[in-house]
Amino acid sequence: MTRSLLARTTRPVALAGVFAAAVTLAGCGGGDAATGSGEPSGPPQAGGTLRYGLSSAPTCSDPAQSSTNQTIYVTRQVVDSLVDQDPETGQLKPWLADTWTVSPDARSFTFHLRDGVTFSDGTPLTADSVRRNFDSIVALGGAKAPLAASYLAGYAGSTVLDPRTVRVDFAGPNAQFLQATSTPQLGIQSEATAAKAAEERCLGANVGSGPFTYAEWKQNASATLVKRAGYAWGSAVFAGQGEAHLDKIVFTVVPESGVRTGSLASGQLDAISDALPQDVAQIEGGGGRVQFTANPGVPFGLQANVTRGVLRDPAVRAALLPAINRKELVDTVLGPQFKTASSVLASKTPGYVDLSARVKFDPDAAKKQLDQAGWVPGADGIRVKDGQRLSAGVIFAPVFSANQPILELTQQQLRAVGFDLRLEPLSVAESTVRQNCKDFDFNYYNSTRADGDILRTTFAVDQRNLNARGPAEPLDALLAQQLSATDPAARARIIGDAQTAVLDQGLWIPTIELSQAIGVGKTVAGVKFEASARLQFHDTWLAR
């Protein structure tokens, strides 16, 4: 194995071609969009409290165990990452690591850390801090930290080369890992936090090196962050590397969209999640604006448990793909800032391939496939075969406020071809338990990441495998091969072939691409989305 140590420069070492595909955001479209009046201008003002309305409760204060957007909006602020990803270009930039190198076989990653970084408990960031963090994530495992653990699949250990240099080794090639170190799930926490048990890490006492620290955590209700005094090591993506402008951020949970919008318009809140199309006029009428950005990753869709009921029949899964009118979902429930899903990856994701010819509304084709598979219409219009109704349930959580209306309309569309989709709304905690036990027919969700390796996390037989399937070719081979690809074009081709293979096996039925739509008040400036469409508040300020 070839390992290269760091060139001690003031800028990151150029990376091999293997990572070009991983860090180029496809279809960025020039960045975020906004409607309404412009944000305040002039130099940023220091001070003030930002009052933010979340659409659902954050589930755990630990970034490593965070999975929902509403949770990550909070946890992202308390940890820094080894590198950052520019949301405009996809390029990786320095953060806690000022330089890094990668072995030619993509098995070893060496990071040289910035000098002078401390955690909020006063302890210094060292190479051993990084080692302990990654070791602790592997110990948490996929049940507690599914995304973080998947990024460290094949982890062979970390070696401290000197107090500021750490080498991370994998048993096999892991071309996705460098981009993964920019995610909040691999954000670096203090050694004391890394040593805690999984449950303790969810109680709001997490210590990071980020621009904010936890002041209060009330499970399922609120979270309060305060500015980290003396912060001086911001990401190269930030507008500045010093302290945050805000003194405090108070996150409160406001599940009802109308209440969130009314609170923003009246000045009781400064910014809100999940601003729906019908909310835009009221937000703009109060002098505010709505900021949009498209999420990369796996779009919203139905993931089938292929061992359950009628979904064991590949013909049924294949027939449901053309049975859904995705344009109607967007036009009826969402609006023009959202896109229909046209593949197993969202269009902003590196490696995305347009499979809209496959993901095409054609109810006649769906009916014909079901007819050929022996499913005939029953007295109530729902098809039957050998006495079994063509029916399956779908579990979902309110992590996106439009989930239920989208599924209600999907339910109507599927009924038109003779399929009975039963809706099973759950809390995030209940949904997690059901997922881990694979106790569902369909699971409806999305997964956000600015790298095509999200396919491996979602579909590989040796990862979460919520399809509950056995090994299958060519999919598993493709998902493994993309980790070894040393050429960006070759990696993109493999990821493209993997998307086709997922559809071929009926493992995912895409619906819509998620966009983050954030309502922002007239006094708020500098609310920014990072590369994976999560909020970063370091540059945010209030005009007073």
Write out the strand line-up for the largest beta sheet, numbering strands in chain order.
1-13-24-12-2-11-10-9
Mean pLDDT over the full residue set: 92
SS-based structural class?
Answer: alpha+beta
Radius of gyration: 23 Å
Describe the structure.
The chain has 544 residues and is of the alpha+beta class. The chain is built from 15 helices and 28 strands. The strands form 8 sheets. An 8-stranded mixed beta sheet has the order 1-13-24-12-2-11-10-9. Helix 14 (475-481) runs antiparallel to helix 15. It is globular and about 70 Å long.
Helices and strands in order, then pairings?
Elements: E1 33-36, E2 49-54, H1 69-75, E3 83-85, E4 92-94, E5 97-102, E6 108-113, H2 127-144, H3 146-151, E7 155-162, E8 165-170, H4 177-180, H5 191-194, E9 212-218, E10 222-227, E11 248-253, H6 257-265, E12 271-272, H7 280-285, E13 289-294, E14 297-304, H8 314-320, H9 326-334, E15 339-340, H10 363-372, E16 376-377, E17 383-385, E18 388-389, E19 391-396, H11 403-415, E20 420-425, H12 428-437, E21 442-448, H13 454-459, H14 475-481, H15 488-504, E22 508-510, E23 512-513, E24 515-520, E25 524-525, E26 528-529, E27 535-536, E28 541-542
Parallel strand pairs: 2-11, 2-12, 19-20, 19-21
Antiparallel strand pairs: 1-13, 3-4, 5-6, 6-8, 7-8, 9-10, 10-11, 12-24, 13-24, 14-21, 14-22, 15-23, 16-17, 17-18, 25-28, 26-27
Helix pairs in contact: 8-10, 14-15
